[in-house]
Fold this protein.
Amino acid sequence: ELIKPLIRGRDVGRYISYWSRTFLLATGFDENIKKEYPAIYSHLHDYKDKLEVRTDKGEAWYNLRACAYYDAFEKEKIAWSRLMRIHKKEMRSFPRFVLLDKSVYTTDSVCIITGKALHFFIGVLNSRFAEYFFSKNIAILDNGGMQMRQQYVENIPIPKITERNIALKAEIEHLVKQVIEKRKNTQDTTDLENRIDRLVYEMFDLTEDEIALIESKAGLVGE
C-alpha cells in the first residue's frame, strides 16, 4: 500500500491527532511504480517536470529519496511537533504528544519515537511533571513558540520499572487508553489526566512540596 496518512506538526494534539485527510505517496527509493502501480504513475506523470528537478529523489524521478527510518513509520509510535504553540482545540496545550498507528507517516515538522511501553511513556510525556521538566530545558522563542528538539525529549527522566512500581505503570497505561478513547469521542478527560499526573508523581517519589511547586507552574509555559 503506497498511500499513507500524513500528519503535520499542526495536526498533533494531546493523545490524539487532528488529521486533515492529507496523504503521502510512499513511492520508495527504487519501487518500480510505472510497472507495479500504473494508476499512481499516471497521476504522478502530470507533475513529472517538477518531480524531476528535485535534489532528493530516488532511483527514478517518481521515487522518494533513501531514508534510514522509513521502517519506523510502519510501527506504532509517539509523535510530537518540533515547534509547539498554543492549540485552540486543546484545554492543556503543552506538552502535546500523540500515539500514532502503524503506517501513519509524518512531515519533517514532527519527531517520532518507537519502542515498547508506548502507552506508559506517553502518559509520562503528557504529564504535569513533563511540562515542568520541559519548561526548564526547552528553548522558548520570542513569538511564544516552544522548540521541542529531539534531545529535549530524550533527556527527560523516566522512572525505572521495578516490582515496587510496576502496578503504577499498568494503571497509567490503563488510564492512557481511556483518555485516548474518550478524546476520540470529544469527551472531557480532565479527571483522568489529573489521575495520571498523580501516578507519575508517585512513580518519581515526589514530596507534596515538590508536587505543589510543579502544580504552581502548570499552564504557564509559553506565556
